[in-house]
Amino acid sequence: MTDLRDDARRAFRARFGHPPQGIWSAPGRVNLIGEHTDYNEGFVLPFAIDLRTLVAAAPRQDRVLRMASTFDDEDTVYLEVPLDALDELQELVAGGEASPLEWAAYPAGVAWALGRLGAGLDAATGVDLMFVSSVPVGAGLSSSAALECATALALDELWGLGFVRPELAQAGRMAENDFVGAPTGVMDQTASLLGAADAAVLLDCRSLETELVPLGLGDAGLEVLVIDTGVRHDHASGGYGERRASCEKAAVLLGVPALRDLGVTDLNRAEDKLSTETFHRLRHVVTENQRVLDAVDALRENDHAALGALLDASHASMRDDFEISTPELDLAVEVARENGALGARMTGGGFGGAAIALVPGDDVSRVTSAVDAAFAEHGYGAPEVFPVVPSPGAARDA
Ligand code: ADP
Ligand code: MG
């Protein structure tokens, strides 16, 4: 953390020629269980991780936002946009396949969204923003939410807006939906803003109520390993949107506001009314919702073996019913289990990214080398295997 703060300060000075006023950060997240349930108004159980995106920031005299990231060369300020042009910019990028702003669409989108949420930016000053991050991109760990939430927290404080964290989470979601053009829910931002050490965040995606659920991993001698397959996805296009459309179709055909309104006992009656494929999509969502609630019960009883079994069932459901896994993810999960994991599943939107495994501390190195060896044997690119620690949410760091 100290290193990254120094990096952020140094990089800010190099780009903007003066020191930052403060540094804010927000973590990536791992979704323990509850995949593709968020936009179905169901339950999710993510936790914030110990990988973070930092933003060094300082207000300006004018009304221009300037943004830079270590993604670009030392001397590059990627985007300069007057606050008064944000609405126009949003109209330009809305509806496009992929935003021409690339990464800057996320922080610019957050500034726009804060305005939309009633921040009253008429009197706001411009801000210089420099991003530095340890969250890998596209690995299913939500580097995008980390970027949005760090931005939201920094702007909220620099502009004296006084938004509560669930409102900042909405600003991040709006940036992603309406500026970047990725139809995602509010889970990632909620985990990034509301996470706490050694706890997961149970989010009811309908009421937006949250509850911290202690994970007890340390006491149980367990670690969560991330196995990043290195296969990258693109949420702004393709399968994610298709799955979402299937779920919406199923809800319409069954006459419910969202799939959240169906329980496992409704599955029989649903099967007659849907095509096989749509039914499988629905069955994933309905059973996954139940698994989230069961996982919370298991954690309350400190039953990590039961949690592991739920992770396994979640993976099978995503592989067979929702069809969003990949051969690399299936292999990672299988090998982790064979080498001591209590359970494992792909995490994130799917079509690549990472799996997580719940592993006894003593088995971590065995799982790691077994996964490495299996990937090599199958001719897959080398995976990155590393532990993540359930960590506090977004904060001011300096
Ligand atoms: P993820 O699963 O990591 O959230 P996304 O495709 O949703 O994957 O978001 C990744 C995108 O977020 C990157 O392509 C980039 O545009 C942006 N991003 C993430 N971290 C940074 C950063 N430190 N600096 C600039 N852009 C970033
Ligand atoms: Mg993302």
Largest sheet: 8 strands, mixed
The value of Rg in angstroms is 21 Å
Bound molecules: adenosine-5'-diphosphate, magnesium ion
Rounded mean pLDDT is: 95
Q: How many strand segments?
A: 12
H-E order = HEEEEHHEHHHEEHEHHHHHEEHEE
CATH C-level category of the largest domain: Alpha Beta
Cα(first) to Cα(last) distance is 11 Å
Percentage of residues in strands: 15-25%
Please report the number of helical segments: 13
What's the number of domains?
Answer: 2
Global structural class: alpha+beta
List the helices and strands and how they pair.
Elements: H1 2-16, E1 22-33, E2 43-59, E3 64-69, E4 79-82, H2 86-93, H3 105-119, E5 127-133, H4 143-158, H5 165-180, H6 187-194, E6 199-204, E7 210-214, H7 217-220, E8 222-228, H8 239-254, H9 267-271, H10 276-300, H11 304-320, H12 327-338, E9 343-347, E10 354-360, H13 364-377, E11 384-388, E12 395-396
Parallel strand pairs: 3-5
Antiparallel strand pairs: 1-2, 1-12, 2-5, 2-6, 3-4, 6-7, 8-10, 8-11, 9-10
Adenosine-5'-diphosphate binds next to strand 5 and helix 4.
Compact overview of the structure:
The protein has helices spanning 2-16, 86-93, 105-119, 143-158, 165-180, 187-194, 217-220, 239-254, 267-271, 276-300, 304-320, 327-338, 364-377; strands at 22-33, 43-59, 64-69, 79-82, 127-133, 199-204, 210-214, 222-228, 343-347, 354-360, 384-388, 395-396.
List keywords for this structure.
4-stranded antiparallel sheet; Alpha-Beta Plaits; binds magnesium ion; alpha+beta; 398 residues; single chain; binds adenosine-5'-diphosphate; Ribosomal Protein S5, domain 2; 2 domains; 8-stranded mixed sheet
